[in-house]
């Protein structure tokens, strides 16, 4: 059968610096299990995700979380990749293992939804005991078979994993269409179905980190930023710096552990050029950043103070779209209160090194496919005992 190939994916212009006012309204689609409605106003943000992954003190924020539930956009982000009852879903509860798809976007004001790619793709796996969590990054340049997607008019074809979101967002598909097509592509690739998902705008990361008072990060390789420079000592995006007409100096992330402000931590975690293992090192740094945020929230008394939780939500602004299936957000958060930041384990796809095919495109090794099967079967602990080298070194 001949596969119709789509036109080339346009290259994004990385020049602007501000985040969009809001994502496009998610398109409606059928689900295999009951769904909650999409609320019209998106005001909560990454603070909810931090509460989910940070453990202690969650109960103190229950009232606040309940009060904000009605204003959080809870969309259908997994579509046909949603976990079914036959696959282990327990409708309306959080019993059993939980698999979440986390997607990071670099969404700036001048870019339409149809121009966006998912630059960060992470599967969050929580075993049935709900006492720990695993973060597994999918290489953004992995060659994947993207299925046809009627809402955006995409005919199906071969593309990079990061481009699946782009094709789902076309022709009005928006953030929801992008998420659904990426989720289905990943299910076909890994066999993993999803209990929920989150789309996170990188701008939300910066605001939340600043609200937390910075995070502790350890730089393991010196790298010069490809996105930011300094003008008169102030870090700025390249396009903004050029408009000033002033001399610039490079932003260099030097080896060592230190507290980082939001812009610095985010910029470091986004670098891949100039690193020994390229995108694999970036994946690990992104995982480290998520864990560092969760640890800071848990250790700094944030989660025992409803007012500080509220501050995180306000800081994140319109940076998050959340899908928790047919479980309410308060129940979802409180149901996973046993997962603490120190129980988050970072795992490496392809042993953290590039694995190419005859065409020079990224592929997934058989060992990593076995890891994905272990996630699907909730036997990841057994897999890690036999393959301890897939656990990432956090420094």
Automatic annotation (TrEMBL):
Low complexity bias spans: 16-28
Pfam families linked to this entry: LytR_cpsA_psr
UniProt keyword list: Membrane, Transmembrane, Transmembrane helix
Region feature (Disordered): 1-36
Membrane-spanning segments: 38-60
Biased composition (Pro residues): 1-10
Family: Belongs to the LytR/CpsA/Psr (LCP) family.
Protein name per Swiss-Prot or TrEMBL: LytR family transcriptional attenuator
């Amino acid at each position: 059968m001949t596969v119709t190939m789509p036109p080339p994916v346009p290259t994004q212009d990385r020049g602007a610096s501000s985040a969009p006012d809001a994502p496009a309204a998610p398109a409606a689609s059928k689900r295999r299990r009951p769904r909650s409605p999409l609320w019209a106003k998106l005001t909560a943000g990454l603070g909810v995700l931090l509460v989910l992954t940070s453990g202690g003190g969650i109960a103190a924020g229950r009232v606040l979380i309940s009060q904000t539930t009605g204003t959080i956009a809870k969309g259908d982000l997994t579509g046909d990749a949603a976990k079914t009852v036959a696959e282990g879903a327990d409708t309306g509860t959080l019993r059993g293992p939980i698999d979440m798809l986390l997607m990071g976007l670099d969404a700036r004001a001048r870019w339409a939804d149809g121009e966006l790619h998912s630059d960060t793709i992470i599967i969050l796996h929580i075993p049935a005991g709900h006492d720990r969590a695993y973060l597994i990054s999918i290489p953004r340049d992995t060659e994947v078979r993207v299925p046809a997607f009627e809402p955006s008019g995409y005919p199906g074809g071969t593309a990079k994993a990061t481009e699946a979101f782009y094709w789902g967002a076309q022709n009005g598909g928006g953030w929801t269409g992008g998420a659904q097509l990426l989720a289905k592509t990943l299910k076909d690739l890994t066999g993993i179905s999803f209990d929920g998902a989150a789309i996170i705008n990188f701008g939300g990361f910066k605001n939340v980190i600043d609200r937390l008072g910075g995070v502790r990060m350890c730089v393991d390789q010196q790298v010069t930023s490809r996105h930011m420079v300094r003008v008169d000592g102030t870090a700025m995006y390249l396009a903004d710096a050029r408009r000033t007409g002033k001399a610039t100096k490079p932003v260099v992330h030097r080896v060592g552990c230190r507290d980082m402000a939001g812009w610095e931590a985010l910029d470091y975690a986004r670098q891949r050029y100039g690193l020994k293992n390229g995108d694999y090192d970036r994946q690990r740094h992104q995982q480290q950043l998520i864990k560092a945020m969760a640890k800071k929230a848990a250790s700094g008394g944030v989660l025992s103070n409803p007012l500080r939780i509220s501050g995180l939500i306000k800081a994140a602004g319109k940076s998050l779209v959340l899908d928790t299936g047919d479980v309410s957000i308060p129940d979802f958060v409180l149901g996973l209160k046993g997962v603490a930041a120190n129980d988050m384990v970072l795992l490496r796809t392809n042993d953290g090194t590039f694995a190419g095919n005859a065409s020079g495109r990224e592929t997934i090794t058989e060992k990593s496919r076995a890891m994905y099967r272990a996630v699907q079967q909730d036997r990841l602990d057994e897999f890690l005992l036999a393959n301890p080298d897939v656990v990432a070194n956090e420094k």
